[in-house]
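Schema walk-through. Below, the input block comes first and the output block second. Nothing else is stored per chain. Lengths vary across the set, and this one has 567 residues.
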Amino acid sequence: MTNDLQNSEPPRPLHPDAVRILPLGGLGEIGLNMMVVEIEGGLLIIDCGLMFPEAYMLGIDLVIPDISAIADRQGEILGILLTHGHEDHIGAIPFLIEALGCPPVYSSPLTLGLLANKLEEHHMKDQVEFRSIKVREPVSIGPFEVEFFRAAHSIVDGCGLAIRTPAGLIVHTGDFKLDPTPVDNQPTDLGRLAAYGEEGVLLLLSDSTNVENTGQTLSERTVGEAFEELLPRCTGKILVATFSSNIHRIQQVINAAVKVDRKVLVSGRSMVSNIAIARQLGYLHVPDDILIDLRQMRDLPPQRILILTTGSQGEPLSALSRIAMDDHKQIQIKPGDTVILSSKFIPGNERAITHVINHLYRRGAEVHYETTSEIHVSGHASQNDLKTVLNLVKPEYFVPVHGEYRHLVKHAQLAHSMGWAEDRAIMISNGTPLVLSANGHHTEPRVETGRVFIDGKGVGDVGLMELRDRRHLANHGLVIVFLALHQKTGEIVSGPEIITRGFVPEDESEELLNEAKALVGQMLDAHSREAIADWEELRVEVRKTLRRLFNKTMDRRPLILPIIMEL
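--- output ---
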């Protein structure tokens, strides 16, 4: 676990006409979205997301928010509001729902369907109460009144939130774009945003991800047009890799496949699962006769086949990566085949993605991706969209959310350029409570927040020290020193013996390792019996001795692990 610290004091009592906003993740980072809204009488949580590990998090599977700040307030948590079904907004729920006291979860049908499938995998579905909402229909949750409104995004059934509190109305956009022609004909509800603005909005929390992009984000339909233009030109098999949650994109791929008389094979566990859920709920429309299995695919010529798969981010174990490496048992790339990566290169994944692209070209495929073809558009609002929302909502206060630190800064600057004073366009960070009321606003001392690492079945048992050791091992290798000392005299009974892994070849570095043994022996001879009896001090001295030698002779710093036994 890692956190920025803080303050162990209990939260200060709120005035009956005040509201406290506490972000626990998602501000200054992409992922971990989680925000607490508190008034006298209870707490609501907006989203509960995870993030995928960064490069330095060796061996870590997932990262979730640290909820220490509210861990002892289970009885006050009235509900969790989910804006949409992406992992960075719902992915932490299986790991945190019990610690939060299993409050009811409110969201749209597809979001709850995706969450139910995730909880089923963790054998936790029966522990959670799902409450499906309808957009524009207010829901009373304790002293709060919450209204979900439609927000177009890169996943079906996305919503924003209007939360009425004694202090005033809070509007949270969720992740959104102003798509004038969405695939499902469900655009972001500008009418409701305008109505909130007329009603009077105390605080707007708005998505900042694409604030660096000028103009307006393109419509998702432009991707469908690109597919319909590209597919007729393809002569071999077609593989399309995209996010399994992007139901609109999947619908457009299927529509384009139907037009060129190609059958569709779905590959990848999450892709199969999400398509099944979306079809069952009526969000995805697929002709029954277009889907095929692997056996049927073998009987078709390449020009009749389209494979829909996961792995657009170069994930090593994904179907696309295995296909690119010619390591997939049923699907192979042949010269003349076409591969389409219909997604953005997420920062940090560029090297893995280009590695996959290079191997696809080695197999003879023609590859289309973001920088070469118009086969992806963003699901987030660009500058003109963000300005439109600010002008419609006209909030008294504005807080940018959902983005790296520079995104938050630029979004605040955008508001300043439109007339919001610096004390009305407010930047806060994870763990900083912001209190708002009719009398103004103020921040409170930071509370505990940060990141909890998940490694296998362990949650929070790997921290910064363990990650440091893993990086050390990965960069410089390991040296193990075995010593056996006499129980009474402290004399060396056996050793020192030295074994290395990932440091130097032992059979080629005999001279160096013999010098290391000799130096450890000299160090032991120079120490008193009392010093040798203190094993921890002895370990420190062994590390110091060998560290100096390896640094001087090889400029390397392996992890040195002394193992001392008493005989």
